[in-house]
Please model this.
Amino acid sequence: MLNRKAWLLKGADRLLPLVRRVPFAVQRLTLQQALNRCLAEPLRDGEFEVLRGRWLCLQIADLGLSWYVTLGREGLQIGRQAQAHVSISGNWREFLLLASRQEDPDTLFFRRRLVIQGDTELGLALKNLIDSLDPDVLPVWLWRNLERAGKGLAVQ
Model:
C-alpha cells in the first residue's frame, strides 16, 4: 500500500504542474463552481463576509499557480489579478495537508511551510475560518479522497 501511495504522489508531482496550462477561464469556472457548491452552507451563514471587498491571493508556488479570491454578490469569485490584501503561499503538499486536516494549520504557518503576507489580521481570520469549517460541508466523496490523499502524504 505504501508503494502505491508513493507512486500516486509521484504521479501528482508530475501531473499537477500541467494545471497551469489549463486556460485561466476554465480554472476560474471550475474553482468558482467547486468552491461555491462545497462551501454553500458557510457562505449562506455569512462566514466568508471577511472577504467581501477584499482579495486573498492563493499561491501554489511549486505549481506556478495563483488565484485571487473575493466574496461578491454571486458568492466566492476568482480573479486572475487583483490588489491582494493578503497572500497565502506554499507548495501543493502543504495545502493538501491543510485541507485534509492531517497537519495542524498553526504548525504549517509557524514552520513557514505556508506563509501569510500582507494583512496578517485578515490572513489569520481566514486561517481560523478554514480550520473551523466542518468537513461535513464537503461532499462525502470529496472529503474521503482529501483525507486519504492527506494521510498518504502525512506518512511520507
